[in-house]
Amino acid sequence: MNSGTTWRQRRQAARTQRALDRALARSSSPAMRDELLTMANSAWSSRV
């Protein structure tokens, strides 16, 4: 893997984290927060 690919992956991960943070901030219900975190965790674990 070259450094360009690594940098792109890091940038995408940061963008995904910001999007998740915004979604969590907008969601008022604890159940929705749990669902968002579950989806995020499954997305992260499938990449590793």
Chart the SSEs and their pairings.
Layout: H1 3-26, H2 30-47
Q: Describe it for me?
A:
Residues 1-29 are annotated as: Disordered. This protein has 2 helices and no strands. The chain has helices at residues 3-26, 30-47. The chain has one domain. The protein has 48 residues and is an all-alpha fold. The model has no long low-confidence stretch (mean pLDDT 79).
Provide the descriptors you would attach to this structure in a database record:
88% helix; elongated; 48 residues; 2 helices; mainly alpha
Main pleated-sheet profile: none
H/E series: HH
How many individual helices? 2
Structural class: mainly alpha
Short overview:
The chain has one domain.
